[in-house]
Amino acid sequence: MKCIIADDHPLYRDALSILVSGNGIDAEVGHAENVAELHSLVEKDGVPDLLLLDLHMPGASGFSALGWFVGNYPNRPVIVVSANTQADTVRRAIDHGAAAFLSKSSGTELMISCIKQVLNGERGLHPGLDISDTGATLKALDVADALASLTPQQFRVASMLVEGLLNKQIAYELNVKEATIKAHMTEVFRKLGVQSRTQAVLAIGNLTVVPAEQTEDAPED
């Protein structure tokens, strides 16, 4: 069985790798520290049987990476493993197609049990975590579907657009001509159903995940 662990923290990737390469799971593990590496791994080694995905990783805009993977490979389960365990975040992740949601502080036995249940076909798991009654909006689900239709390169262009990079800056980062970026941008706009950079950023903003610390520190009304 093949598993990809997509997380930008090397020590946590290594810990998860040890967990899923033994304990009766016995997976062959690939590592990705950003969305571009996740795309490359899938292209090079094939679609994994299981993806363990951190929401807050470079190249992702909220639930964008989750939506891209689920949209393209609906029969391959994704377990979100995150320190952001707000009830709203858990519910929206499940709505966007995550098979399960695990806290990064979960114990080893709980994680192993959840992973095995997912591999046995169970879905919608969030052991030990609260889940909100209010889920993802229809607009957010539509945007996720649109992002799932992007090629990996178009996805990277869209992510850099959200980061505020200009076309020439994106071209430099991806080592391509600016005309190529303009062509990608045209396709991104078409698939998102927008006509400008601002509209594209606002659309992808529907997938934003509020960091847990911002919610905890927010002043009361």
From TrEMBL:
InterPro entries: CheY-like_superfamily, EvgA-like, NreC/VraR/RcsB-like_REC, Sig_transdc_resp-reg_C-effctor, Sig_transdc_resp-reg_receiver, Tscrpt_reg_LuxR_C. Keywords: DNA-binding, Phosphoprotein. Residues 2-119 form the Response regulatory domain. The modification 4-aspartylphosphate is found at residue 54. The keyword DNA-binding applies. SMART domains: HTH_LUXR, REC. Residues 143-208 form the HTH luxR-type domain. It comes from the Bacteria. PANTHER family: HTH-TYPE TRANSCRIPTIONAL REGULATOR YHJB-RELATED. This is Response regulator transcription factor.
